[in-house]
Design goal:
210 residues; globular; seven-stranded mixed beta sheet; 21% strand; 8 helices; Rossmann fold; 7 strands; alpha/beta
Amino acid sequence: MLSEEEKYILEHSSPQEEGLDWIIKQTNIRTHYQQMLAGPVQGRLLKMLAAATGARRALEIGTFTGYSSACIALGMPPDGHIDSLEKNDELEDLILEGWKRTGVGHKTRLIIGDALQTLKGLEGPYDLVFIDGAKSEYCDYLAMVVDKVRSDGLIIADDTLWAGRLWEKPMPGDPQTTGIAAFNDMAASDPRLECVLLPLRHGLSIIRKR
């Protein structure tokens, strides 16, 4: 159930494409982790950032059902391309069908496998990177992609407020929470990067490579 604030925000944001509606509906029907899906507001922002930066090459770490990658691809020019990494091969059919229905199948490449292993074989430069994979591996992702991103390119990381667990006293010691906490410290302290953490959904970090 949406709050009144969430309803107002959606009513005053541009509507999304029908293909994206289909992905959301199928995610709710066919998976047990609907909360992992980025919502329409975050999707609008990803599309807008891709368009505003003129991104032609993008990388997504953690595709889930393909919603975020579709949003990014929609913001890219006709010759844009996004490499999307996903570990769960059972989601492949849903991802590909969603991309087709959204009209971005020609811009997207799905790579099934362990992200850390896949990243070793990918070459930059990328204009935009979206990180939404295993939270315990966020620092590894950042370390591996920072040199693959062009100057003034963007690295966007999801879930970086982690439902408030980061400022609990004491902070939980599970790998996901400590991974996000370490990532936030790493992004904020790296002199090569400029970072702002937005309170959108579960936290969204927008990082510019200097």
